[in-house]
Each structure stands twice: as C-alpha cells, then as structure tokens.
C-alpha cells in the first residue's frame, strides 16, 4: 500500500516537512509518479514493531517497584 507524503506524516506522527527532509536524505524510499512522491507503507513495519517492543520494555521497567534499601537506618 502506498501513501502520500501527508498520509505518511500522519502515520508516523511527524510533520510533512520532516517527512520531506527524510525523503531528501534518502532515509525513506519513495516512488515519484510524475506528480507526487508515493511511499510504501511496509518499509516502516520493522521500525514500528521495534518501537512497540521498546515501549513495552520501558513500561515494564517503570512499573517495577523500587526495592527497599537494606542500608537505610532509622534516625528517629
């Protein structure tokens, strides 16, 4: 499935200018149909999967309780 620059920006939660910059840097592969750039959605699949795994890992680490410090002494 091919997306326009605007659709890609929405899909990746970026601005249109950021997507255009990535296209110019050749970090996003495109096809030019004579009028506009078209971007294959599948090229982002691996990246988005890795981002989901990273989010889950961070959430798990943040949800772990902080262990009590055995060296803490009461100063009452």
TrEMBL record:
<feature type="domain" description="Helix-turn-helix">
    <location>
        <begin position="2"/>
        <end position="50"/>
    </location>
</feature>
<dbReference type="InterPro" id="IPR010093">
    <property type="entry name" value="SinI_DNA-bd"/>
</dbReference>
<dbReference type="Pfam" id="PF12728">
    <property type="entry name" value="HTH_17"/>
</dbReference>
<dbReference type="GO" id="GO:0003677">
    <property type="term" value="F:DNA binding"/>
</dbReference>
<protein>
    <recommendedName>
        <fullName>Helix-turn-helix domain-containing protein</fullName>
    </recommendedName>
</protein>
<dbReference type="InterPro" id="IPR041657">
    <property type="entry name" value="HTH_17"/>
</dbReference>
